[in-house]
Amino acid sequence: MNSIPHRSAASREAAVSPTGVKVNDEFWSGYTDLVRNVVIPYQYEALHDRAPGAEPSGAVQNFRIAAGQAEGEYVGWVFQDSDVAKWLEAVGYSLQIERDPDLERRADELIDLVAAAQHPDGYLNTYFTIKEPGKRWTNLTDCHELYCAGHMIEAAVAYYEATGKDKLLNVMKRMVDHIGTVFGREEGKLRGYDGHEEIELALVKLYRLTGEDRYLKLAAFFINERGQEPNFLREEWERRKRRGHFNPNVQDRLDAAYFQAHKPVREQSEAVGHAVRAVYLYTAMADLARLTGDAELEAACRRLWYNVTRTQMYVTGGIGSTHHGEAFTFDYDLPNDTIYAETCASIGLIFFAQRMLLLEPEAEYADVMERALYNNVLGSMAQDGKHYFYVNPLEVWPQACSCNPGKHHVKAERQAWFGCACCPPNVARLLASLNRYVYTRRGDTLYANLYVGSELSDEFGGVPVRITQSSELPWSGSVRFAIESERETTFSLALRVPGWCPGMTVAVNGERVILSPDQMQGGYLMLKRSWRGGDAIEIDLTIRTSLVYADVRVRADNHKAAIQRGPLVYCAESVDNGEIVAALGLRQNAAFSERPASDLPGGAIAVETEAWRSVSETSDLLYRTEAPTRENVRLTAVPYFLWGNRGRGEMTVWLTAQSE
Amino acid sequence: MNSIPHRSAASREAAVSPTGVKVNDEFWSGYTDLVRNVVIPYQYEALHDRAPGAEPSGAVQNFRIAAGQAEGEYVGWVFQDSDVAKWLEAVGYSLQIERDPDLERRADELIDLVAAAQHPDGYLNTYFTIKEPGKRWTNLTDCHELYCAGHMIEAAVAYYEATGKDKLLNVMKRMVDHIGTVFGREEGKLRGYDGHEEIELALVKLYRLTGEDRYLKLAAFFINERGQEPNFLREEWERRKRRGHFNPNVQDRLDAAYFQAHKPVREQSEAVGHAVRAVYLYTAMADLARLTGDAELEAACRRLWYNVTRTQMYVTGGIGSTHHGEAFTFDYDLPNDTIYAETCASIGLIFFAQRMLLLEPEAEYADVMERALYNNVLGSMAQDGKHYFYVNPLEVWPQACSCNPGKHHVKAERQAWFGCACCPPNVARLLASLNRYVYTRRGDTLYANLYVGSELSDEFGGVPVRITQSSELPWSGSVRFAIESERETTFSLALRVPGWCPGMTVAVNGERVILSPDQMQGGYLMLKRSWRGGDAIEIDLTIRTSLVYADVRVRADNHKAAIQRGPLVYCAESVDNGEIVAALGLRQNAAFSERPASDLPGGAIAVETEAWRSVSETSDLLYRTEAPTRENVRLTAVPYFLWGNRGRGEMTVWLTAQSE
User: Fold this and answer.
1) Which of A544, A620, A622 is the best substitution to test chain B (most B C-beta atoms within 10 A)?
2) Does the pLDDT of residue A179 top 80, yes or no?
3) Which of A347, B120, B489, B582 is a plausible cystine mate for B463, CB 3.0–4.6 Å?
4) Which of B405, B552, B622 sits opposite A580 (nearest CB)?
5) Distance (Å, rounded) from C-alpha A393 to C-alpha A301?
6) What ipTM describes this predicted complex?
7) Residue A17 in contact with residue A360, Cβ under 8 Å?
8) CATH 2.60.40.1180 domain range(s) in chain B
9) What are phi and psi of B467, to 5 degrees?
10) In this structure, what are the phi and psi dihedrals at residue A341, rounded to the nearest 5 degrees?
11) Which pTM was predicted?
């Protein structure tokens, strides 16, 4: 870890996410290694249009053209620059884990190129440089200019934190200065904001790194202007004669709710519109609420959190019920088959959860973070790191994905990651920065949010302390914290009691801690004492395979149950259970047995239970008065995140469950 | 009834649908009266742009402009002419039931206008006359020219049969002569066919009326050319530079299967593409197979029938599983919520069933006809005759229809019928011609396909016979046939044993007929004897409320049952059962009680049973390990065709069912 060489704004905050954490975990390190060894190098090739079989990205070439180093046409989406940014950000996190001179050299070259594409006035965006010069800032609704800037700011911060090199940081500071000349409440400036939120949370990162208030103020401006009347997006749309970038036809209406701009953010209570945009906004709102102590904004964050996680979230941590606009629909509408549950949206939910944890130490935020991480996000990536789901369904009938157009967006197999450039690098940057999600710190209390093997280096009461966590999650519940410290120092270790955990024992230095209710605060077990080197805390989290039921207002899950074991949601696949997994039924009181899943990677555990299968009597009638018979079967379920690893087949998370 | 004043081709056929039938039924006459008294007059106003609150149809005005009697722009769809045609056809059937000089005068005036819009060469189509003159026959794929001609032929035949007036008939004969100069295998003619099948079945009607073989030959040409290689639609699309009428952009591909033109019709085995087009084609194929004795074509009809009714038909007789292209998807894919099940498609299925009955007397064809009629079709129309469903869902959550874009096509309430002009007049013409579906006749056997109160006048062995059927269906199973005849004559009365009927007793002149297996043929009970005036046959069909189960391959209905009583499918609505009808559960062995549904129209019977409802424990968690509790409830189900008559609410046909 590089230390940050100047006084960071972070040190003034009540709660922070410690950066001096290094993941070293039997389960997770495989994924972070995969990101470093496979995903980042492969994506580099893809960005340079050299990945075999991949469609040309054009992203690097666009920068070359914009920098005057090459000639040609702009290639790709209007937000193509963000692919370069996300790659650089992932590189930043990766270099924080482990320096790599060769990777750093490639990143430096790319940063030189990005810098060369910057205009003298600070402006940076290859689309508007190459394709629509003179049209800067005329279509904030669709054109992602501030979004691309936001991603490049995140990259600049991460790269600086990793290497101490400030070239990209200075490029982006100049770009932000330029943005400050364009946007603002002053006469002649645009009182606007981006159609796709992102710059808001990026500016907070820039503020936290530099301590310069103007970055926080600009973030606050974008957040506060959103949804105010007169509506900026609608006025802009009128100026464009009601035509869009993606749809050049005249449109009947502009749906401001799609952009979370239908009302001021402090008045919002329901998650609406494009799911990724929404959670990126909420993340920044929680940041701003924390940093400014804005109680009204904090209340809005809590309401939105509640709405998302209590009424619009799948059991896998997926959000976004419809592919139409990749969007939220409405409370309790969680269809399992026509679902969207985009990978990026779950990643955004993790960002939001982390910021809520910083706002207030409540274990439920970490519960959701863990749910999204182990299930929706992890399930999106194949074990080879080169194939991804963008849509993460809870129910798949492969033929329906092919033959029913309402399910064409659902894929029965992970796709080559370069097919669409948005989710794969998002997974990469999340996994490469997993160390930032393990703990939060508030004063002298260290909250263990994720039980992920790791080493933390921090200081308590002026004493440097190293805490080595080791964890057997998700397969078993043993977790151990070993403390190294030169001398005794007092701090609280707050151990999250996971929502899925029916029982937890804690021992300090081999002595069982008798847990009393007053030790529980916000779902954490508080261990406050004077710690010394050699102290060890051992936790045993009971991991039980259980059925989980949705609130009955979720129509799609009525009379059904999902199987969960520890943090992992399970699913039934046809490769284990035969075709028509929907015909399987669970008995509510049946016991589960566990066994190693030898045909699945990574020491996975499969579970089995006595169940039944409905079988139609032989008849060629589609509808009959004879009920299907029940055959007793032994049902096998495997971790959801590993589904689709054994060929194309049916899968379901929710299964009909009966009490007898 | 008007007799047909010349020797009809029908008399040469093995089987016919007797035209001398008049419906007089306690249940159905209300609907046929509604069509005559409300729907036809109202639609007349709508076609003349005089229906209050309705969008201008433009249909009549288009004819005025085409006839040079008015000036202006073409209004409406490219197939707008067909609305006038369907109205005239419905009028024809209605006048067959009961003459009405005022209605006839209005029809005559409209026919004069249609005639005035005909070109000297016989061509008739207002779109290509007004809007794209010179573009005739250049886009058969999209532009419905032959489709519109087909509907006008059907109108001409029906109007002639009712009134003996041949003006429209002669107009359409001239149009067909013109079509004959354009299409054919000869050099210089188009070897093509319409993107929307319809003219094929219409030409058969024209042939049957006139006995002129060339009409049947032209129908055969269109049927036989379909799907041949080189593919006409694809070549035409190439000539149009891959642009369509509805989508002017260049398209990647033309999906010939959408038009059932992916392979020659005799090689087709699976129902594909637009559902209405498909069943209109199959109807004509069955016609042609019957009239020509084409065994290969007959086999194709049987395969397609089997595919539709054994794998792609909802329990309500709805077909078309997706709104994308209003189309079939694939075997056993019958989602209840994202369903299409267009009213017109079920009507087309009834046409197909009737033609299959003429091809071979098998009661299952009538079973499907009855299923579609009493459920999907009847349910589509409100009791006021002015509101309709185009999409006929089996599961409705009104908020999802509003807030989940994947269900926007599903409406929770019937819409004003003039909103879209395709389904309402189709219902009108079907109900007005219901008399044609009651019986089929093959030699001296009269098959009673539908138990609908009616009077049949026909001749057996040269003796005029009148058979008065009275029926208490669908509410009770008493059916009576009274025979009037001047003298004794021998014929067989074949009584259909409905698929839903667990038991049936028959008495002739008060004496119970002992049924023997050899009296059963193709699902009909054959009563062959010498009948005399005053003979009476009394049937008692056991009507029992039963649960019906789908084949387990229908994933959407696994672990579920529907409630059926006689021919009627039932459903549970929230107005009777409270919100979240999906949380209700049926007990497979529970008895049903019946009661008059005083809040529903027309003497409807509601059924009740002991059931349960899943109730979530009070908790604000979306997912919990505690199973919902079960509350015993008395579940009320009402006939599906009457759903949505008591305000906006939830509805479901399929309910979870358990054996205990």
Assistant:
1) A622
2) yes
3) B489
4) B552
5) 27
6) 0.94
7) no
8) 439-541
9) -120, 120
10) 50, 55
11) 0.94
